[in-house]
Amino acid sequence: MADELDDLKAAFDAATPMPGPLKKRDNIALAEKNFADLQGSRSGARLTTKRGPMARLGQGVMTMFQTMTTKGALTASTALVAVAVLIMLPEDALKMPGGDVDLSQPELKVTPKPSVAEDERAEVDTAVTRSDDLDGARETRGRDNLVAAPVELQDEGAAASIGATRQSTEAESFAAGDAIAMEEPMMEAAPTLSQLVAPSDRAMIAPASPPTAKRLIVEQDRIAPLPESNTETFANEETSPLKVTADDPVSTFSIDVDTASYAVVRSSIMGGQLPPRDAVRIEEMLNYFPYAYPTPEGPHPFEPTITVTPTPWNQGTNLVHIGIQGTLPAVEDRPPLNLVFLIDTSGSMQDANKLPLLKQSFRLMLSELRPEDEVSIVTYAGSAGQVLEPTPAGERTTILAALDQLHAGGSTAGQAGLQQAYQVAEGMSDDGEVTRVILATDGDFNVGLHDPEALKDFIADKRESGTYLSVLGFGRGNLDDATMQALAQNGNGQASYIDTLSEARKVLVDQLTGALFPIANDVKIQVEFNPERIAEYRLIGYETRALNREDFNNDRVDAGDIGAGHTVTALYEVTPVGSSAIRTGPLRYGQHDDAETTVSRSDELGYFKLRYKHPGEPTSVLIEEPIYPEVSEGSDDVQFSIAMAGFGQLLRDGDYLGAWNWESAIALASTARGDDPFGYRAEAVNLMRLGQALDR
Amino acid sequence: MHVILIVMRMETSDEALARAAAGGDADAFSAIVSRHYDRVFRLCFRLMGARDQAEDLCQDICAALAAKLAAYRGDARFTTWLYRVVVNAANDRRRRAATHARAADGWGEVEQARRAEAIEKAEGLDWLTTAMRALPDELRDTVALVLDDVTHADAAQILGVSEGTVSWRMSEVKKRLRALKEAENG
Asked: How far is A31 from chain B (nearest CA, A)?
């Protein structure tokens, strides 16, 4: 049996060459250069760059200290467990299913103020030394802990829990040594001696940190649903860098009307923990909120409004605010809707905030549907197959009965759930009707196709045939945000994360029309900045939606979709020529000759272009208009979206924010709250306050 | 002093070095890169199947390592983490190559022109090349790791799958190799 492998191994060993010495030298030099550059770019970290033999000695001493404080760190962790329980219990209680009552509002009053544990923690911290102190600091800024988590266990079922237990042991043994400030480049300063001496101010609040959470998994059943954070994966990219207009005047991106990121951020903060950095997609935080931009009047289904306004966090720059309002066709005129719910019934879905919440959300939505709409339910994993044949939405009792039959349990069975759902959907659709598959899951995408690429292709293929896919994420701990995003984007649908009943109402009821009825497909934006006016610019957010410049005119490149009544917001921070805020220095060589580079074109800051397709059409339509330099205050909507962009940046890194802080964000958001009929903005301000407390 | 220094350097574990490097220590970073370069190259070759591609992949990894290391949390063994970085970078590279429809010289390209001078001396390599090309990417990655003496458990961590999946993949690899052998002999 092993013969074949032995052959292969022998062949491998014989064939594997030694690395070329020159290439090796170059590659290592490249690595070192990039390392040095990275240190240079984060000024705080430079302090820890210790060179020379004495530094090495110090390193050894530190290693010794770290080893010695392991015990202390464990004691501290015990205190953290207590904190976690204090925070989680009320939330758990609130999330228990209990009829169609809006349960989420009281949650806002839950303030994670773990005073008892705080004292314990402070004691421990003074008793031990630096490493534990930093451990505390790191946990307080828990958002970084999941960035590129080196081990993302995506195992199914039992394997995951074994993995988690094993990891927990690892986490314990590293609890102390691990504590060097390796993942906090944006802390004021990396570990210095002064912190060694006076650590107490670091140990403010100790929220449920990933290592703690992992340790808790073992006893999880008896305590509360805590995030097993290390199986979550988030889709994100590095923050869009500053661009020099002279070098790179054109910025191209796809619009994004997803809102999942905001809900994940909220669920993290309400759980007493800052969200992992990669969970924060600023464009989704902007677009979570309904804005009342001027409604379309012309021939197009939506209308862009461009506002230039001073940047609150930088006096030397302006913000170019692009607001796009989608038209809202009269609701009565909407075509009949066919919905196929593809529901994950794997064992992990049984938590109160998963399947039970889904059932309640479903009930809410049902009352919004019309008698001519049809609903079908297909399940995968656990119980399998079609549990509700296509049924007119008028037959509430039949639908509710089928819904009540759903239960999570059993092992994950690789059913061809997705194919079946699409098959049902195709059987339901008639001309002029809108057909959607809605996938509801907590992260188990074992829907019948194993290869992620094949899965995406399958969904994209079905998209062409007119069946779209939306994804609803439930629960934390196993959430596979990256796959959710990928599937929804390929399926022309929205990815939403449902953490509370009021979020379910927002996604499935208030915004049912927008989420389910596309008014424009493949919407792309391209902005060309005028190098005579704008020295530098950067797009805030939309990192995962960047397109190549040439993609803009290529109708075959897929992009985001706008649904009925959706608003989309994008923000550029621009630095005018001559401003003191220009970050890049002038070049000594290779300066362009001004006369030949640009034809003088008035004082436009830039030129805005947007392409979209009418649903089902193969060719795109172009909207274009210049960006004029007039600076104005902007509406409350504009100001509020700017506050949200600031909030997102505070959660991600805040590299460009200077002295602008939580206080400033809260003040701006509070004054720009405007008309807030659903209370979304008030909730955001509360989240900022909690975030401020957690970020200390 | 110097004696102590040397002893300490020798005893510095990968994880300690990685943490120091993540904290900004340039010496530690150089030390850990040099220590593991050959190992990384070997895995690159096994993943890509051609020397020049392996060196290019190594270059990608070296270029990005400083930034990636900043996020190393130390809750997996450094080598496990590093192998994961390598496997992911290899996947990225393959995906890019596929997107741009560039001809690849490695395992991936079935219609690769046989290099005339290699034919007679490298019958073993040729069998290896044929065998590796017959495997889909995920099996190839798994076998490259396991033949590099990575345990199934560690390979599972590196690839982000369960240990059972790794074992299943290895038995699948054996099955395919056997089929290949039979085809050759018969």
From this structure: 5
For residues A531 and A249, give the distance between their C-alpha atoms in angstroms, rounded to a whole number. 7
Q: Is B58 on the interface with A (CB under 8 A)?
A: yes
Extended beta strands in A541-667, E state: 560-563, 567-576, 606-613, 621-627
Contact in structure between A496 and A263 (CB atoms under 8 Å):
yes
Which positions in chain A touch B174 (Cβ < 8 Å)? 1-2, 4-5
For residue A240, what are its two tokens? Answer: 């869009």
User: What residue spans define the domains of chain A?
Assistant: 20-49, 58-231, 243-329+519-582+599-694, 335-514
Interchain contact B80–A (C-beta under 8 A): yes
Report ipTM for this prediction: 0.79
A477 confidence band (pLDDT: 50, 70, 90):
low
pLDDT on residue A595: 45
Residue (of A151, A252, A161, A186) closest to A41 by Cα position: A186
CATH of A243-329+519-582+599-694, one of 3.20.20.70, 1.10.645.10, 3.40.50.620, 2.60.40.1230: 2.60.40.1230
Which residues of chain B have a CB within 8 Å of the CB of A37? 66
The answer to whether the Cβ–Cβ distance between B124 and A16 falls below 8 Å is: no
Tell me phi and psi for residue A173, to 5 degrees: -70, -20
What would the mean pLDDT of A429-434 be, rounded to a whole number? 77
**Residues A227-231: what's their mean pLDDT?**
47
Cβ within 8 Å of A, B 126-165: 127-128, 131, 143, 147, 156-157, 160-164
Instruction: Name every chain B residue with its beta carbon within 8 A of the beta carbon of A152.
Output: 160
Task: Number of helices (H) and strands (E) in chain B: give both, helices first.
Answer: 9, 0
Give A481's contacts (C-beta < 8 A, 6+ positions apart).
Answer: A232, A233, A234, A235, A260, A261, A264, A279, A473, A495, A497
| Portion 158-177 of A in contact with B at CB < 8 A | 159-160, 163, 167, 170-171, 174, 177
Query: Among the listed ranges A176-180, B30-34, B147-151, which one has the minimum average pLDDT value?
Result: A176-180
Nearest to A4 among B5, B157, B181 (CB): B181
Q: Do A185 and B73 touch (CB under 8 A)?
A: no
pLDDT at residue A513, rounded to an integer: 65
pLDDT band at A543, cuts 50/70/90? confident
Cα–Cα nearest to A382, from A408, A356, A404, A357: A408
* pTM score above 0.80: no
The pLDDT score that the predictor gives to residue A312 is 94
Q: Between B73, B160, B162, which is nearest A183 by CB?
A: B73
- For residues A112-117, give the mean pLDDT: 42
Q: Inform me whether the C-beta atom of residue A155 falls under 8 Å from chain B C-beta atoms.
A: yes
> How far does the CA of residue B100 sit from the closest CA of chain A (Å)?
14
In the structure, what pLDDT confidence band is assigned to residue B98 with cuts at 50, 70 and 90? low
- Please say whether the structural domain B13-185 has been given the CATH code 1.10.1740.10: yes
Q: Which CATH architecture has domain A335-514?
A: 3-Layer(aba) Sandwich (3.40)
Q: How confident is the model at residue A189 (pLDDT cuts 50, 70, 90)?
A: very low
Q: Does A659 touch chain B (CB under 8 A)?
A: no
H-run or E-run covering A662: helix A662-671
Contact B15 A174 (CB under 8 A): yes
- pLDDT of residue A125 exceeding 50, the answer is no
Say yes or no: B50 contacts chain A, CB-CB below 8 A.
Answer: no
Rounded-to-integer distance, Cα A528 and Cα A539, Å: 12
Are A243-329+519-582+599-694 and A335-514 equal in CATH topology? no
Strands A250-254 and A518-529: antiparallel
Average pLDDT over residues A127-150: 39
- Mutation site for B-interface testing, chosen from A30, A46, A47, A67 by largest number of B Cβ within 10 Å: A30
Confidence band of A172 (pLDDT split at 50, 70, 90): very low
